[in-house]
Amino acid sequence: MSAPDGSPVGAERSIGQLFAAATTELSALVHDEIALAKAQLRQDAKRIGAGGVLGALAAALFLFSLPMLNFALAYGIHTWTGWNLALCFLLSFLANVLVAGVLGLIAWVLTKKARKSKGPQKVAASMKETAGVLQKAKPHPRPEPRALEDRSPAAIEAVARSSS
Q1: I need a surface site. Which of 44, 105, 143, 155 has the fewest CB within 10 A?
Q2: Phi/psi at 38 (nearest 5 deg)?
Q3: What sections of the protein cross the membrane (predicted)?
Q4: Where are the chain's structural domains?
Q5: Do 100 and 61 touch, CB atoms closer than 8 A?
Q6: Phi, psi of 146 (to 5 degrees)
Q7: CA distance 128 to 62
């Protein structure tokens, strides 16, 4: 059995090995937090993109469907109800505005959610918290190793066998 750095368990690691292990773990932590920030930014970009697409769809629907839908709807209302043709055209226009308004509202909600997202701020706060914990961390005092003559010969022999 060995420690993560390859040294046998029970063997004391040097300060350099401990520092190298801590540096490696800290580097991995920073890389993971950067990856988290990128993932959150990608999610926000997708939301903004979806809101933009729906907004463009609402505008296209409003502009390009007006002539065709207005004529079809107005003549349909006129045929079914016998109302004045001008009133029927007005009702068909209001129906188009209503559909475009619903799509525009959905686009606005998605864009607002993306703006309210605190993804990058959360990552920055997490990184600051990690840095604060690391700054306050104090090494644990090691017990003084017992002198070699205090150890029993059987214990010394067992350690020698386990290290080889």
Answers
A1: 143
A2: -65, -40
A3: 48-77, 83-110
A4: 15-126
A5: yes
A6: -70, 150
A7: 48
